């Protein structure tokens, strides 16, 4: 793939934006500072983008506040129409959006286009759900009163998102926010800002008014502090690491903002002796190696019961070995590069720690011969739950296998973590499906299925994996306030 050619083509299509968006205007950093955006597969600089900070963020908040005053007054039907138009434009441009994702994030093009379908679905769902934000009427205990509950938008939302799903993590927040009548200041990762800018360009084309969607990035702590300090920002919605999430939660206390956090996971994937081996291998492969292991719901620990351990390890390793690694634009590639050098070094240190404590590399276990940030799809056996790799997200293409004996032991190991985002269970026993699903301290459980995310179901974690839910009808509540109205003196006589 000739990257420069592709960049030029995307540029002429108007989708490859290299300025931030404030109040409907494409804007440089006020001091002219820029940062490069790299292609992780090649190291090439794709474009330079503004490096913004507190001042630009404050301006974005002001215009978002102005826009809120009118956007929140539109009828739900009108907001719905514009969201639907945005969805149509995202779908009409899915090839180009997929290309931008592959260029800046590295995931294979087919997977990137899959992200566009998934990400756009949140806008479509929000367009539909905008019309169903119902209030309530409560039977009054007093004859002369009428008691009502109104649902109203929280106000301006600060939406901070990570690099691993440059589109979907934004649409999952911005869709419901706009549907409810809120306006947003988006802070995408500086590693993958181009997808966010392309999506914002399409939002403008869809008739989402200037100021309703703003995009700033650059100096993350400065931008975060400005969002936290502002009294006009009434909600912070964040997806990213638990460490940054905790900082934002503490900072939001200054002005008592509503907070939703989608943080890191440490997903157990439990394979019982009575699992269908083929289903378990396919499911574990799907959840472990999606986006080269760089998702919050990736299986981080594969717990395998002793009766099926050897058979599973062999079949799984064979499946992993068949995965093609390479640049995301190459036909047949299913594993791209890791996002940056720091990510590879983290993977290396976890593998080294495991091996030094007795784990055995069954496949891979080192950097890929392609160089850059490519790492070999790896399977490691004899992992113990005390090893670094079982305590923290590896966020890379390494599958650690842990052996267990009983169902009780598997549940104890699975729950022995501060994280609680996703868990997976593979078994053919119906009673066990229920028992184990109920016992797992996680926000999402996949039973005989490794890919569970969808716009129609609530996504989110418990414990230190976060607060609140995204997607589904439940995700709307995160952007709404409830107002109780008591009408007095209502007697008919
Ligand atoms: P991260 O380092 O926490 O960054 C996430 C976002 O926060 C980025 O936009 C980052 O900006 C920004 N940020 C960093 N420091 C900040 C500060 N002091 N104030 C305000 N913003 C700040 O996480 P990441 O490495 O990008 O993403 C990987 C993590 O996200 C993993 O832990 C993964 O599990 C989690 N994740 C969770 C979910 C979920 O739904 N639960 C989904 C996807 C990912 P810069 O990038 O510009 O520094």
Automatic annotation (TrEMBL):
Q: Which Pfam families match?
A: Aldedh (PF00171)
Gene Ontology cellular-component terms for this entry are:
mitochondrion
Please give the InterPro entries that the UniProt record associates with this protein. Ald_DH/histidinol_DH (IPR016161), Ald_DH_C (IPR016163), Ald_DH_CS_CYS (IPR016160), Ald_DH_CS_GLU (IPR029510), Ald_DH_N (IPR016162), Aldehyde_DH_dom (IPR015590), Aldehyde_DH_Superfamily (IPR050740), Succ_semiAld_DH (IPR010102)
In which compartments does the protein localize?
Mitochondrion
Active-site feature positions: 262
User: Which branch of life, at top level?
Assistant: Eukaryota
**E.C. numbers:** 1.2.1.24
Q: State the UniProt keywords alphabetically.
A: Mitochondrion, NAD, Oxidoreductase
The record, for PROSITE patterns, names: ALDEHYDE_DEHYDR_CYS (PS00070), ALDEHYDE_DEHYDR_GLU (PS00687)
Matches recorded under NCBIfam families: SSADH (TIGR01780)
Similarity field: Belongs to the aldehyde dehydrogenase family.
Kindly provide the name given to this protein in its UniProt entry. Answer: Succinate-semialdehyde dehydrogenase
């Amino acid at each position: 793939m000739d990257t420069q050619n592709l960049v030029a083509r995307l540029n002429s299509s108007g989708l490859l934006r290299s300025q931030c968006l404030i109040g409907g205007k494409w804007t440089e950093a006020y001091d002219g500072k820029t940062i490069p955006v790299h292609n992780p597969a090649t190291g090439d600089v794709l474009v330079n983008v503004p490096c913004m900070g507190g001042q630009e963020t404050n301006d974005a908040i002001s215009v978002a506040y102005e826009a809120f005053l009118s956007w929140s007054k539109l009828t739900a039907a009108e907001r719905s129409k514009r969201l639907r138009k945005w969805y149509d434009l995202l779908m009409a441009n899915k090839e180009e959006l997929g290309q931008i994702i592959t260029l800046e994030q590295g995931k294979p093009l087919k997977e990137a286009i899959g992200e566009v379908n998934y990400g756009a679905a949140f806008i479509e769902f929000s367009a539909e759900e905008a019309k169903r934000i119902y209030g309530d009427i409560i039977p009054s205990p007093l004859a002369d009163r009428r008691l009502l509950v109104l649902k109203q938008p929280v106000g301006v939302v600060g939406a901070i998102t990570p690099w691993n799903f440059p589109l979907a993590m934004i649409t999952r927040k911005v869709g419901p926010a706009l549907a409810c009548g809120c306006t947003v200041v988006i802070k995408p990762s500086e590693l993958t800002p181009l997808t966010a800018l392309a999506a914002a360009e399409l939002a403008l084309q869809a008739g989402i008014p200037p100021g309703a969607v703003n995009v700033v990035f650059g100096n993350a702590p400065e931008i975060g502090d400005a969002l936290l300090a502002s009294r006009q920002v009434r909600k912070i919605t964040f997806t990213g690491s638990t460490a940054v999430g905790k900082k934002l939660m503490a900072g939001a206390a200054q002005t008592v903002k509503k907070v939703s956090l989608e943080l890191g996971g440490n997903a157990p994937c439990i394979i019982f002796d009575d699992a269908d081996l083929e289903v378990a291998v396919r499911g574990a492969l799907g959840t472990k190696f999606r986006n080269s292991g760089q998702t919050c719901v990736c299986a981080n620990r594969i717990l395998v019961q002793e009766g099926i351990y050897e058979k599973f390890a062999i079949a799984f390793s064979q499946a992993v070995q068949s995965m093609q690694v390479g640049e995301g634009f190459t036909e047949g590639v299913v594993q791209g590069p890791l996002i940056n050098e720091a990510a590879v070094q983290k993977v290396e240190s976890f593998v080294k720690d495991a091996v030094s404590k007795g784990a055995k590399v069954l496949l891979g276990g080192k950097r890929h011969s392609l160089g850059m940030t490519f790492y070999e799809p790896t399977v490691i056996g004899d992992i113990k739950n005390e090893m670094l790799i079982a305590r923290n997200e590896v966020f890379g293409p390494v599958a650690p296998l842990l052996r267990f004996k009983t169902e009780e032991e598997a549940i104890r190991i699975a729950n022995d973590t501060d994280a609680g985002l996703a868990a997976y269970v593979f078994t053919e026993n119906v009673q066990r499906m229920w028992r184990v699903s109920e016992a797992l301290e996680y926000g999402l459980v996949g039973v005989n299925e490794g890919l569970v995310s969808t716009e129609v179901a609530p996504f989110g974690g418990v414990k230190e994996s976060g607060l609140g839910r995204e997607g589904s009808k439940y995700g709307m509540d995160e952007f709404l306030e409830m107002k109780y109205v008591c009408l007095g003196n209502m007697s008919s006589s």
